[in-house]
Amino acid sequence: MAIYVSYSKICRRYVVQSLVLDHNHPHGSAEYETYATSRRPSGELLHQVQDLVDRGADPLLVTQYASSKGKKMKLRDVYNMRQNRSRRG
After folding, report:
1. pLDDT digits (tens, 9 = 90+) for 3-35
2. Where are the beta strands (DSSP E) in 1-89?
3. What residues contact residue 60 under an 8 Å CB cut-off, 6+ apart?
4. pLDDT at position 89, please?
5. Is 67 helix (H, G, I), strand (E, B) or coil?
6. What's the total number of domains in the chain?
7. In degrees, to the nearest 5, what angle opens at C-alpha 65 toward C-alphas 64 and 66?
8. Rounded to the nearest 5°, which phi and psi values hold at 61?
């Protein structure tokens, strides 16, 4: 998306010269799955993953477990969960 604006001395204001509404990057369900909110487990899987994190399981094993249950997580997600859990308590 791009908006080109210039100042018009005659009108004494900014004027939109052109507007391009095409995306300049890919978008779709594959990209949506990479968002942190999409990678966050929920429900029973969240409790299972948190239990593994609390017990000190290897982050790689936690991501593999989540993947086997259909949720793609990154190692950074597990590290963040561990950090957030230690701050709370």
Report:
1. 999 999 998 999 999 988 887 777 888 888 888
2. 2-8, 13-20
3. 75
4. 62
5. helix
6. 1
7. 90
8. -65, -35
